[in-house]
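Sample 1 of the test manifest.
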Amino acid sequence: MSQSTIQQSSVRNGLLAALALADWAHLEPHLEAVELPFDQTVHAAGGPVDAVFFIETGMVSVLVTLEDGAQVESGIAGPEGLLGLALVFGDSHSLTDARVQLEGTALRIGAAAFQAAMDRSPALRALLLRYALAFLGQVTQGGACNARHPIENRLARWLLTAHDRAGADEFPMTHEFMAMMLGVNRPGVSIAAGLLSRAGLIRYVRGRMTITDRPGLEAATCECYHTVRHEYARLLGPRSAAPAASAG
Amino acid sequence: MSQSTIQQSSVRNGLLAALALADWAHLEPHLEAVELPFDQTVHAAGGPVDAVFFIETGMVSVLVTLEDGAQVESGIAGPEGLLGLALVFGDSHSLTDARVQLEGTALRIGAAAFQAAMDRSPALRALLLRYALAFLGQVTQGGACNARHPIENRLARWLLTAHDRAGADEFPMTHEFMAMMLGVNRPGVSIAAGLLSRAGLIRYVRGRMTITDRPGLEAATCECYHTVRHEYARLLGPRSAAPAASAG
DNA sequence: GTTCGTACGTTCGAAATCGAACAAATACTT
DNA sequence: AAGTATTTGTTCGATTTCGAACGTACGAAC
């Protein structure tokens, strides 16, 4: 456990910031600041989920691994949310990998302490269930998007989602990687990214992506981005829908 | 409210059947038997969710409606589950339509009574959260499946999922309709269904689908069917993973 | 028995995407 | 400065899927 007290006012995680003081008090003694280094697997599919991570900075992808080895992104979590959703549902296993895509930091709480806090604090439970529902909305809309929308729209959507969580207009990101997330082949992303770049919406050089025209990107995405964003805002408040964009 | 008492032993819904008597007692006075006629919209996207429906027979699709009017299935519920998942999360709105695909019956409970029962019964809440997690698993795996797997495998998967909930080897189902569920065009389904039919796995005549070789279909599907089924079984017990197949 | 609506089979050209490959450019290493 | 690994741009043919169309079969209604 952490030796020193964490001040709620200094917490950058949207869920924790939304708690009343009494509910925060249930969690705080058990929270431990941890690093989320790039590419770390926070929890693995099939394995146990032994802690919840409230993300403070960075971005983590939730991934389904298919039989052929392909990993497809089903959702993204950032400073608006948490990892270890299975524990919110009272389970201790996950169908998905969680892998750090943009390095950052988190506050970690072990499964037992987390369950105890959930049991004692109805407000905490209610808040985290709303987050779970928002995440379900993200996965639901994303699934339909995968089935029907062309690569260019989906790429714009993914970039906006990443931008919301990156905390900056520029962040490291390769075509190869985005192709895997979207479940498409790499040249497909290169072509789509080329279109967005020629339209002046983004720039990229060797694994560094820069969002140069966010309103333009929002016009280039399918409605799925806006649908998910509105759902996050409705359930968790505007701050949690787009932590980076509204702060910066 | 219903005038007469419903015996738990006669209930065909997997969730209700799994409840201890004390938890059942919280719900029973408020349950009302209702019909689920074909094509009925149980609740609509954006609209309020004013009741939970524990399905007894039949099958209901949970659908995302896209801007272009296309409706893509994100999940299916049958006698193993319920509709109105938003209420389990403490919310009262839904991102999705729920539409009856195979007619049946359900036990309905209004939102207020349902919330009260959830508040009073931790066991009920725990059970329904496990169902919510299983449903999230279905949506998650389905989204990845949409992104990567060819139509034929996805059709086999969908037929197996329907078979599990239909309670019979034969059920009404058109190509047109399956195409919409899978988010693909109709000839794509006709071709895929033709392959499955020539392989002797299914038969169909004018909107009547018959599963003739279930093990064969299970070999023709992608792993996504098995993954989801195992997750349902793990979280809810074997009965809920395949209510029809294990009963018949 | 005829008519009509729906479901299905099939075709066709167009478009999107795939999968593999290779060249060019950039960063890192030595 | 040279060598190496990685990232990106690009090509190309193959495959899948799309979207529209048309003909046929089945079943219900008159």
